[in-house]
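It is worth pausing here to work through a concrete case rather than discussing structure prediction in the abstract. The textbook approach is simple: state the sequence, then state the predicted structure, then interpret. We follow exactly that order.
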Amino acid sequence: MPEPNHANVVRGLASDLAPVEYPHELALILLAHVLGKPKTWLLAHPETHLTARQQAQLDDLTTRLKAGEPLPYLLGEQDFFGLSFKVTPDVLIPRPETELLVQLALDWLLRHDAAASVADIGTGSGCIACCLAVHMPSLRVAAVDVSDKALAVARQNAERHHVSNQIHFSNADLLPEDGQLFDLVCANLPYIPSAKLAEVNTLGFEPLLALDGGPDGLVLIHRLLEGLQVRLNSSSLVLLEIESSLGPETLSLAKTAFPHASVGLHQDLAGLDRVVSIELGVE
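Step two, the predicted structure:
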């Protein structure tokens, strides 16, 4: 019996993945990954056959996907803000909603061309730091995380996007210990309230360290705001990604920590509260 060509493999795999959302699209993505070809190439070459090794790799990926492992971990990468980032189970998978924080940061930087010092607190994969550095070559970014394994991934992403010379990575508890003052601080810290962790469908695959925000989801954000009171330049911006139900509480913390700042709450594309901004030096 002849070996099945990949068009038949896709049909069979899509049927096997039927309980999963978008099974045919996922089948194409997995097969393209195994063959090392773009999806457009697959569609143009339906006669291509898989080797035994490729079939075994595809079977393994399919089993892991059906077990709930996130697709980006299977592929080893995730797109974010128009760039591709390496991801491993040592880092949180970059989410589309975090792109709002990056866009707000870039918009502010374009209006404040003298701003040059940036901190990315809880850098994880380094996606925020790298995106800012790619779009603003004059920036110098301090990318901080408590996980050495996460920092290793972030360094690889900085090399991938040729911005290693703009980013200094350090292992620290929230703020780097050198006392540097910052024009812009971005923070996507763990913000899921502990009681809500069970609702996160990637729990068991993504690092708990990057998700658990403590009993109220605000433990690390509260600590960061206290530490930032002596680490910001007179004209500066802080951007905090938040859990969508914690907008009012985070606003209250921000106003208490910075009573003379302009504080705002920003919604993502789904209309959910997603980013709190704190701007100093506003006339």
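Step three, interpretation. Residues 111 and 171 are 31 Å apart (CA to CA). The chain has a mean pLDDT of 92.
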